[in-house]
Amino acid sequence: MVAATFDLARRQPVASAAIAIAAIGLATIAGFLFFQFVLGYPPCPLCLEQRIAYYIAVPLAAMILLGLSVGSSRKVLVLALLAIAAAMLWNAGLGVYHSGIEWQWWPGPQQCSGTTSNFSGGSLLDQLQKTPVVRCDEAPWRFLGLSLAGYNVLISLTLAAIALWGAAAAWTSRLADESSR
Questions:
Q1: pLDDT below 50 — which residues of the chain?
Q2: SS3 assignment, position 146
Q3: Which of the 8 DSSP states describes residue 162?
Q4: Structure pTM?
């Protein structure tokens, strides 16, 4: 089974990368929805922003698989994998930023980790109603010392590496095809 998996990865790296990205991305989406709706951990604004990369990567990985089935240009497939890698690297950076806020290494955005700054020009009740309850600077759950933002960094870097591997393999096979002509 393992040998067959590695053989598939060698023979069809773009498909293997797209399948891995879609599967890991879907598992991550299922995970954060499980934490939110089953375990009752509401996401903070930064958590919600970190989800966007998965909402981009999973459908794009599915489109890569569709593109492979209809004979899309290798350049298009490489660009799609590079777009996934860029989204995941951006997301990893956002996760590092969020983790640093949780560990109090730097201040977070005023909207989810600061205090209400100005009480003039409106009532205190109005400002309190506009202040979100879920804070970005408090990690509600940790496992092995990492919060969900920390695990997001690891998953995002893994998906970026898989996407870059698939893009590099597609590009080098393209160059090999051109040199054999």
A1: none
A2: strand
A3: H
A4: 0.81
